[in-house]
Design goal:
The protein is an alpha/beta fold. The chain has 13 helices and 15 strands. The strands form four sheets. Strands 4-10-9-8-7-5-6 form a seven-stranded mixed beta sheet, sandwiched between helices. The longest helix is centred in the last third of the chain and has 22 residues. The chain is globular, with a radius of gyration of 22 Å. The chain has two domains: 121 residues, Aspartate Aminotransferase, domain 1 (Alpha-Beta Complex), CATH 3.90.1150.10; 247 residues, Type I PLP-dependent aspartate aminotransferase-like (Major domain) (Aspartate Aminotransferase, domain 2).
Length: 411
């Protein structure tokens, strides 16, 4: 039986996370289903950034590196992210971008497995993951990037593979991989695994230590609500930190950065994976976003993610039956992340028509209509109203306008 809007509002009234929605600046006329691309603005972020600009930078100037903890920010914020990904505080640090962190950890993994020359990934992985892996392979003699369907990865790991690079929740399909099983298969052959958590952290259960994970990266601007282009984070298991060295030996990763010596000596622990000067204003915003998870019942958070995605699937299939939507995301809640994708031949104009009606989802080429559900601020009523609008757009063919179609350049 399809639920009604009143049913959805009743679910919102009983939602143990309902108070968190008011902590975000969301236009009441907008249904925001794209927090898996860019998280909403926490209200607390504005005051935190203003204070960092006016007081810390404006008044205290360079004294703020110590007085306001600027130097300690990468480790401090990393420690706040750690509980969301099943890591220890000393295993996570905030630095650079996801792409740069991928480069650092791939390079470190290859150096730690001499004689092994294969980076193993899957076709269709998030493009930057493959691009960075290709760049690393091009830069190192004999190194090769191989790709296989995700289901074949575990059986394909052999003594040639140095590192397996996979995304925990696929950016397009929303499919979640078996982190524990693949990691176990890699370890059996002596390989390392590098997990991309960009579409996982803050929305679905991640247990890096429980899975005996080696390495991970993730971005700060999706479910962690750190703002556009927020700094990323990386994880290195404590058992590997002394063994691995970053190929980007910047001064902030030095054991004694303010001794200003000519020769590089890596810092102990996770700090050796820093490189350049931390972007303090961006880190201030990220820290405010991460702190929105303080005190949140993570079981309730992840259960809501599964419930929201399940509701969206059920409503689209019931209300939009016969309109050509093909579910791409796994139906099993244990196998999917916090976004849902449907394939449709007119996915792009449908997405544009939805945006014109105040429902912000997104499109992924060539034919994916994708909606993300951020459990901290997305409500069940949002899901119901979004599908109600989608059904109307499909029933009336409101998407069928030239203004909603991709205009290709003339060649």
């Amino acid at each position: 039986m399809t639920i009604t809007l009143d049913d959805a509002r009743a679910l919102d009234a009983r939602d143990p996370l309902r108070a968190h929605r008011d902590r975000f600046l969301i236009d009441p006329d907008t249904i925001y289903l794209d927090g898996n691309s860019l998280g909403a603005l926490p209200r607390a972020s504005r005051a935190r950034i203003a204070e960092a600009v006016d007081e810390q930078w404006g008044r205290d100037l360079i004294r703020s590196w110590n007085k306001h903890g600027w130097l300690a920010a990468p480790e401090r914020i990393g420690a706040k992210i750690a509980p969301l990904i099943g890591a220890r505080p000393a295993e996570v640090i905030v630095a650079d971008s996801t792409s740069v962190n991928l480069f650092k950890l791939l390079g470190a993994a290859l150096a730690a497995r001499p004689g092994r020359k294969i980076i193993l990934s899957e076709p269709g992985n998030f493009p930057t993951d493959l691009y960075i892996a290709q760049g690393v392979a091009d830069a190192l003699p004999g190194v090769e990037l191989r790709t296989l369907a995700a289901g074949a990865i575990a059986d394909a790991i052999d003594e040639e593979v140095a590192v397996v690079l996979l995304t925990h929740v696929h950016y397009k399909t929303g499919r979640m991989l078996d982190m524990a099983g693949i990691t176990r298969a890699a370890h059996a052959k002596g390989a390392l695994v590098l997990w991309d958590l960009s579409h996982s952290a803050g929305a679905v259960p991640v247990d890096l230590n429980g899975c005996d994970a080696d390495l991970a990266v993730g971005c700060g601007y999706k479910y962690l609500n750190g703002g556009p282009g927020a700094p990323a984070f990386l994880f290195v298991a404590e058992r590997l930190q002394a063994e691995l060295n970053s190929p980007l030996s910047g001064w902030m990763g030095h054991a004694a950065p303010f001794a200003f010596g000519d020769d590089y000596a890596a810092a102990p622990g996770i700090r050796r994976f820093l490189c350049g000067t931390p972007p303090i204003l961006a880190m201030t915003a990220l820290e405010a976003g991460v702190e929105e998870f303080a005190g949140v019942d993570r079981d309730a958070l992840f259960a809501k993610s599964r419930a929201l995605t399940g509701l969206f699937i059920d409503l689209v299939e019931a209300r939009c039956a016969g309109h050509g939507f093909d579910l791409v995301t796994p139906r099993d809640p244990a196998l999917r992340g916090s976004h849902v994708s449907f394939r449709h031949g007119e996915a792009y104009p449908i997405c544009q028509a939805m945006i014109a009606r105040g429902v912000i989802g997104d499109f992924r080429a060539p034919d994916i209509f994708r909606c993300g559900f951020t459990p901290l601020y997305t409500g069940y009523g949002d899901v119901w109203r979004a599908v109600d609008i989608l059904a109307d757009i499909m029933d009336t063919r409101a998407w069928d306008k030239d203004t909603y179609r991709i205009v290709l350049p003339v060649t």
